[in-house]
Amino acid sequence: MRLRNLFKFEFFYTNKPRFSGEIETELLRFDKNWRAILADPNGDISALLVKQDLFVSRAILLSYLEADKVVCHTLNSWDTDDEYSEDEFVELAMFKGKELHWQSQITRLDSVSKPFLINALRFAKNANLIPVDRTLDYEGLKSWRNHLDDLSERLFYLKQIESVRDKRLLKEQPIEQNIAQDSINDEIHQDEEIEEGPHITAFFDMDRTLINDFSAKKFMTTRLLSGNTTVKEYLTQFATALVFSLGNRDFVILTKIAALGVKGIKEKEFVELGQQVYEDHLKETIYPESRELIANHIAKGHKVVIISAATSYQIEPVAKALGIKDVYASEMEIHNGKFTGRVSEMCWGEGKARAARKFAKKNNIDLSKSYFYTDSIDDYPLMKIVGKPVATNPDHKLSQMAFENNWPILRFEEPVEKPLINGFRTGMAIASIYPSAVKGLIKGVLTMSRQEAANTTFSSVGDLGSKMAGLDIAVKGKHNLEEIRPAVFCFNHQSAADFFIVMKLIRHDFTGVAKKELERTPIGPIFKALGAIYIDRSNKAKAIEAMKPAVDALKNGVSVAIAPEGTRSGSKVLGSFKKGAFHLAMQAGVPIIPIVIKNAYMAMPKGTSMFKPTHIEVVVLDPVDTSLWKVKNINKHIEDVRELYLNELEN
After folding, report:
1. Nearest in space to 492 (alpha carbons), one of 559, 378, 552, 575
2. 514 and 642 fall within a common domain
3. pLDDT tens column, 430-467
4. Which of 413, 382, 414 is CA-nearest to residue 398?
5. 546: how many CB neighbours lie within 10 A of its CB?
6. Residue 531 sits in a domain of what CATH number?
7. What CATH number did the domain enclosing 325 receive?
8. Is 388 helix (H, G, I), strand (E, B) or coil?
9. What are phi and psi of 303, to 5 degrees?
10. 212 and 156, same structural domain?
């Protein structure tokens, strides 16, 4: 009942008496004497639980619990002299949450996302724990925190029981079933045994998931150029664009404004327009991969549904072409065949989750076994209620969340190469170094600090350069970049993209070690002036001598970034590791932090010299302690560290 109270805003529950009865019915399945066991102080509850077929959704529940902890912590630190504002509070909570994550007080980054924090704040508001008349109930906050800690411990306890049972079952399985299949492209439908049956549904978003375009843009453009547009439509479209340009990204508000413009127009015109837009623009943008996904789900007996924020006039022609009968869309109110100017159903955000629940209830669907394919973080409310969310051509925020949560990620190849654009992109990425250096120079002059100049330059190169190169970077283990410094940051070297990736990740208080040849490039002197260390790999004595400044830098609190392979691989294959980075860490007495770059080779494929837009995945592993290492065992230590990279690259 305490869990029910805590999560009553996130999940649907029956009324309390019925809910209590349902729980008692479940407990009877555990053991007929459950009341006596629970009432007995010496009763062995764990022995009872370990026999059960438990499934503990720790990832989902922990995200809610930790978001509650973040809000509780933020409320405790809120300055009561400040006027309370929900927007300002959420922004502060996001900052505090990241701080708690760095301090390892919470483990899940998605707990710091706005949807989770807003839900947690809603609970705090309902419990009268937010500031009222510049006062806070600190005793109530203390009680809430203790309650959250207690639930977290219980959740961990249950997960351990589940893990013990899973391991026992794993040992009982034939050996051949324990062999993991190699998955190169995260294509979940290839190697996974998919359950069949009509109790499972595959929900699909439309724009950038089924089609490689934004249907609203094509629909609006075609309408505006048709010659049938009214003055009111022009004005509302202009107002919508203006509101959007001023920073309002609320889809609900924008849709309501646009709906006002079509008041009095016959629905029939939009039905015909939708078919025209499909034939002229959208027909050729349907992803072949999405067709294959849909065919696979239908072959398994699954139901297939489109749930999109677009209107049915945009969706229906696409659905018909894909053989999909069930569609949930944003709907405009109609009276006597004409639009009234009001929106009757908003299928966006929580509206999509509501639509999925409605379909599930009507068709006896098991949402815990169902799929949802989408490209946008805005669809998180639906992603969290299905058992198998799949990030499909995801935006940056969804990429990060999916990567953090080990959700499958599908990316469909763009059909056309763009050498001219990619050439321009590459030139801009390289050119970004010079304004970044100027920015760093100004900072250095103002602070009279070379390190501040370097920090400003490196972070600017990382941010601007990766953006110009089209690198969308998702990072797992980000806290390991900050928690222990100085350190030797070792990264596997796949392509020229690594330069921008490392700059963006490490950002400050570090220097790099590179081969001597790079010193003679146009950018070589810039980075040498900022502390970069160039070594002559052909001369061992000179290379060892050149590494001494790196040891001094580490002892003075400045980290070092180095690629232990020494040269680019141009592929996923990991080269052999040289000893320099490891001697460096041992001499300075600092840890090694492995940065595993999983697919930077795709940003600049072997044999090319141009960047192409790529979603990069990076895992920053836990620090490797070198304090007890001995030189005589260095080869074994190197192999152990290299094995960490191999395991992650094969994951």
Report:
1. 575
2. yes
3. 999 999 999 999 999 999 999 999 999 999 999 999 99
4. 382
5. 18
6. 3.40.1130
7. 3.40.50.1000
8. strand
9. -80, 150
10. no
